[in-house]
Amino acid sequence: MNVVGTLFTVALSCCAVAALAALVAPPRARLHLAGWCTAAAGAAGAAAGVAAVVVAGAGQLWSAWLPELLPLAGVRLALDPLGGVFVAITGVVTVCAAIYGIGYCAHGLDGRVFQAVLPLFVAAMLVVPAAASVSTFLLAWELMATSSLVLLLAEHRRRAAVGRAGLWYAVMTHLGLVTILAGLVTFAAGAGGESFEQLRAATLPPAAKTVAFLATFAGFASKAGIVPLHVWLPRAYPEAPSHVSALMSAAMVNMGAYGVVRVGLDLLHVGPAWWWLLVLAAGAASALFGILQAIVTSDLKRLLAYSSTENLGLVLVGVGAAGFFAASHLSVVAALALAAALLHVVNHAAFKTVLFLSAGSVLHATGTRDLDALGGLRTRMPYTTVVFAVGALCASALPPGNAFVSEWLLLQSLIHAVPGAGVVGVVTMPLAVGVIALSAGLAVATFVKAFGVGFLARPRSAQAERASESPLAMLGATALAASGCAALALTPTLVVPALGGAVGVVFPGREVVSGELALRLAGVSGVISPLLIALALMAAVVAVLGLVRVMAARRARRAARLWDCGAGPMSARMEYTATSFAEPLQRVFDNVLAPESDVAVTPVKESAYLVERVRFQARVPDRIEHRLYDPLIAAVTVLGLGARKLATGSVHRYLGYGFWALTGALIVLVVLW
Amino acid sequence: MSVVGATLQVVFVGVGAPLLVGVMRQARARLEGRAGAGIRQPWRDLRKLMRKQAITPHGTGWVFRAAPLLLAGTTLVVAAVVPLVTTDSPLDGVADLFAVTALLALGSVALALGALDTGTAFGGMGASREMTVLALVEPTILVSTFALSIKAGSTSLGAIVTATADNPLSVISPVSVLAAIALAIVTIAETGRIPLDNPSTHLELTMIHEAMVLEYAGPDLALVEWASAMRLSVLLGLLAGLFFPLGIAGADAGPLALAVASIALVLKVGVLGVVLAVGEVFMAKLRLFRVPELLAGSFLLALLAVAASFFLA
């Protein structure tokens, strides 16, 4: 067993120890024991992932075959650089979330079951990218789904919404499992074996390949929260405990992207171009739809959930572009697009951890997630404000943030593809650039809203006024994640060449980027230096500050009243809220969002002119859910209610059913055989 | 020499930007039959503001204080790296068209957050409108960049300008014309001029930029005003450089070439500024909710530019 295997085994053992500790330890020690063991598991997992990326570059892969662990098939594990990237992301996110959980769970979430399931969830997420056979993969996938469902339901006694969110999540995630199962089983049946090695070597008829790809893509897309299968996401994340949301959003949804890359690009060897145009279109649609919903929502965690839909959409744009370029034999830009997609997965995980953890701190301190009721947290929670600002900067793809680097890389790959991509490429690539740009612009507006309305200005409610800073464990974990963001933002030159190894699993023999200080693209011209941008910016700001110091009058700052139009002191009710901030954009995208508003006027008795009360209600529902899922649910409900008549409670009738069913089966058998 | 060129650019933009605003105001005044305040008036205003006491409105914090610094800082970095006088930037890894637009957006975001920090209705309104325009402008910028960079094979501004300078006739191709119109509309939107925003109004129904800076006073306001003048001149200079790169010094240019380039820059930006000012006299501001239509039109032009660049290649 080499170093990767050792570290990976240590990580899984730590998970087991954490789960055991949570079950047997006394309530007082439980939080710390389970939390620190899970954090250790995360650290070991991260090390294993990094080692897999680095060591496999030297040609040493780790794999394991445990035939006695599972009947019939056994458990088959292998960690290549592609899987290693995802294991490393899961590990780092786990470290932050587990440490955060120690502070966050102290009130009400320190139950035995919740604490024991969390490490199991982590273990499942570590095994999914390391699985090397269909049965192992499906088993880990199902464990991941079930354990996350249990974690999501942690607070179901406090809020009724948790139960509904759990139901949506359970249904969507298991329908996804069914399609993945169907797709992989079709694939394995055609290949005559179920290990990934056999699948990779198999030659299937094109129809079977297409079935396998489309079925697995549907399942993976639902896990990644891709439109129109995203409906569980904006329900589940707000209702889950915040560190679980962080784990789900930063680590679990990545598995959807991993699945598409592994099955589509690696096992099915790219396939026809139209598959990847489909992936690209689905990604582009979710990027736009996700960010549009994010900007109009005023629930902080729901906003972050929709932002996940947007970011995974961008990842799928990259993956789709990579597949399309590979199918068009443009290997240089294909490798570049895949590297951009993987880098965006890493970056998204980093800033989403920061954002969900600090949103959790806000929820912990104020008890509300409603941006319209927040505000003024800058003075009350100064450290949380700073880390949220870092996360928001990174999420809005502005320099010096980390998402800027991955979006830049993605745009470069799209631009450099055009001369060789044919007519289809020429039509799709500029549109893809437009979609990425529009979603980036809207993301800027979204996070200016989230940060500006949520944290700046004055508190809009009593809860926000009473807020106080979070405990040390929560702050420390969030700061750790924020420093990870900063590291990714300033020195992507350390990360991207490593990702080149993961890209090499799919497109072998290609160097993607080079350079120490600046990111220099290999094969096409393009160079950017995030570190230099940050340094230049800092130098310019210092220079301006110096200039002001020299030029300006040397008098102390004076405090003064705000301009209130002479109408007396400003009150918090006069501030712009999240809803009013998003109103112009909501109006611009009226046709897409279809907002609902309702005005109810109550007149004074016996008068048509005097009004007693006017009630105004505005809501922006999720239109896809409204148009697609509501009719479906209604139809199923009608069917279910109709079917009730079949079961009246009469034993005679049931015996009749049995008789006719048996007779029917016999007739069918006689006719067919 | 590249450092000298970049320093020259910063000096030119820093000193010349208020003068450009002065020229534009003077041109408008003359056309409207007024005498005007003279082209040095913006500098006199800045000097006056610098001497005043800095003010912290109640309830504002570090975001409000840092915003003008960041706005001016981003603009200075952009002024140093875009090819105005020389195509040879000392900060090679920054002078990418995506990076430059993102840096300008960062400045806008800083100002919008500063405005939200005041907690006044004006601040929120300005920030909300600014972000709306910014989000809608972004696709046009990137897609027209796309069109221009196909020709040069790179998104580096120096490379694009060099490619155009080597082949000046390529400017009259449909690609460049369409991209130029699209980028011109974007420039107007980014700098807050008529018909998208009126820089000289204080009427709450119409204003975007002014609403955001209402609480700033003294040196802070001077910084904001200076930075917005610099943004205007940088964007006009960039527009001139991308589509009319005559005179811009290439790599390893001598002092003479730099001097010629400087004169060319002043002339080009001055002419563009006067054209913009003259245009403003004859136009009315658009309603805020008509702005997206204009920006959608510019996006369409940018898309057509990309298509043209492929089919004409």
UniProtKB/TrEMBL annotation, chain B:
Pfam families: NADHdh (PF00146)
Entry superkingdom: Bacteria
Cell compartments where the protein resides: Membrane
The name this protein goes by in its record: Formate hydrogenlyase subunit 4
Keywords: Membrane, Transmembrane, Transmembrane helix
PANTHER family: FORMATE HYDROGENLYASE SUBUNIT 4, FORMATE HYDROGENLYASE SUBUNIT 4-RELATED
Transmembrane segments: 6-24, 62-85, 97-119, 170-189, 232-251, 257-282, 294-312
Record membrane topology: Multi-pass membrane protein
Predominant location: membrane
Originating species: Nonomuraea angiospora
